[in-house]
User: Fold Stress response protein Rds1 from Talaromyces proteolyticus.
Amino acid sequence: MSLSPSLYFLLSVALAAPKTSSVSTSTTSSTTTTITTTASSSAAPIHSHPSSVYHGSYSGTPTTTGELRATSVGTGVSVASPGPAATTYPSDGKLHDAQPAPYVPAGGVGLNKSPVYNVKSDFDYQSLALGLYQEYIELDLFRYGLTEFSASDFDAAGLSSVDRYLIEFMAEQEIGHATLLSNILGDEYAPSECAYNYPAFASVREYVDFCQKLTRWGESGVYGFLPHLESREAAQLLLQSISTEARQQLIFRQFEGLFPMPVWFEVGIPQSWAWTLLAPYVSSCPANQTRLVWQNFPALNIINNPVPAYANATPAITQNRSTPLSQPGGQVNLVWDAPGKPVGPNNSYITSTSAGRPAYVAWVTQLNVTYSALTISNSSCNNGKNITYASTTQPNLETFSGDPAINGTIFIAVTDDDPFLTSYNLSLINDHVVAGPAVYQAG
Ligand SMILES: *[C@@H]1O[C@H](CO)[C@@H](O)[C@H](O)[C@H]1NC(C)=O
Ligand SMILES: *[C@@H]1O[C@H](CO)[C@@H](O)[C@H](O)[C@H]1NC(C)=O
Ligand SMILES: *[C@@H]1O[C@H](CO)[C@@H](O)[C@H](O)[C@H]1NC(C)=O
Ligand SMILES: *[C@@H]1O[C@H](CO)[C@@H](O)[C@H](O)[C@H]1NC(C)=O
Ligand SMILES: *[C@@H]1O[C@H](CO)[C@@H](O)[C@H](O)[C@H]1NC(C)=O
Ligand SMILES: *[C@@H]1O[C@H](CO)[C@@H](O)[C@H](O)[C@H]1NC(C)=O
Ligand SMILES: *[C@@H]1O[C@H](CO)[C@@H](O)[C@H](O)[C@H]1NC(C)=O
Ligand SMILES: *[C@@H]1O[C@H](CO)[C@@H](O)[C@H](O)[C@H]1NC(C)=O
Assistant:
């Protein structure tokens, strides 16, 4: 990222915390890739990250378990009604207040004070720390595929050396994003890179599909909290990184021959949804890593999730997808775990739910949250844990006329109720989540 002198000034003055370890700004080596940046001496340094990362499961005993908790924990967020003032602005195209200056309309937030690019609340800290976990796994995942598969494996999947370079460049983007978030959080306590445990990818296609799904929840996880941050300064910079991540997600879709952007709006999800999806792939973190507050819901698996590889499309800018991957009315088969399972870094987080009996499937896509009825097939006890099989039917809805809401890479969860929720209050769904989310490959 090339910074304008004024932004660089703000970043270096307001953000740069003392580094506990130094890293060469000219060369960073990993097991596979060597990044040679041409950074001038005036560029801010990148954050240190390990040159080689362990991959595999964690078999030790965690030194601590459970999510981070404050000394006092309430029973729920109380939501006030918006009040009459929420709808009094006339919205008629006329100016209703004196202008502070020519060309400047009255209003706006944060325009009359000098920005400070830090976190300003526990909500901000925990949200950005979650974002940092995500940037780090992306950095590792992008490099991992380039080591795991040979050039000829990639060639066989229709991905050439320039495509592989693009994945390597995406890894470099993640170094930048991780540096930015570490600087905003403060280097001393910001989470570090962890060790990861990926599925056994049988092919480049499977790897690319996993990248496409992982970047989807990375992107959507940020959209869910961005407008709720206290720190609008942090939101500004995070927005500019997540816009890059959105491009990565789209490119991975093109790499696996999916229609690049089959929706009109990109979906946002709550932090605990992103953490539920991410944590199973983090095997262990450094000893002094701070802990996250977010919930890990029981894992939800979609037994018959549409598989993009079946479409047999080759990488392309776009596709004629006359046969959709999924259809309204299609049956979706699900299985989920009971709560109480160790998950995530060092198996030190425990899955939980505060919901009642499973009754619905929530479909979170584009601007919509909609529900379908759940039919329980059977449940069985496995090692004292209740595993439930159920099914539902893919709903049919549009955002605006002409835009079927369920398409692309979306999220579903099993819930006990069907509360009316919209993009800005979606996190109120968490009390109702029995299991999930899972990533549904609708198109
Ligand atoms: C997680 O595992 C790492 C590597 O074995 C260890 O250094 C660290 O202390 C562990 N953390 C916890 C919370 O158990
Ligand atoms: C999803 O979008 C693609 C591309 O526009 C389209 O071909 C397909 O029919 C859509 N799927 C559904 C279920 O609407
Ligand atoms: C955490 O551990 C790393 C590696 O040992 C060390 O560089 C860093 O200073 C430690 N941070 C804290 C807050 O103890
Ligand atoms: C896509 O393929 C279908 C079926 O072969 C064909 O009818 C349609 O005209 C194609 N659409 C475009 C835009 O090429
Ligand atoms: C439970 O339902 C699943 C999915 O329908 C099925 O595969 C499985 O055999 C069933 N198990 C029992 C014990 O009925
Ligand atoms: C398992 O959970 C399902 C869904 O909540 C419930 O219907 C069933 O009675 C439970 N089975 C056992 C053995 O607890
Ligand atoms: C989907 O979201 C759009 C935009 O908020 C809304 O107009 C529409 O009514 C929603 N559709 C359903 C079925 O909830
Ligand atoms: C979520 O927001 C919508 C307004 O967009 C409101 O109608 C709904 O009642 C809210 N849901 C809850 C559970 O507060």
The two ends are 32 Å apart (CA to CA). The first helix runs from residue 5 to 15. The chain has seven helices and 14 strands. Residues 1-36 have pLDDT under 50 and may be disordered.
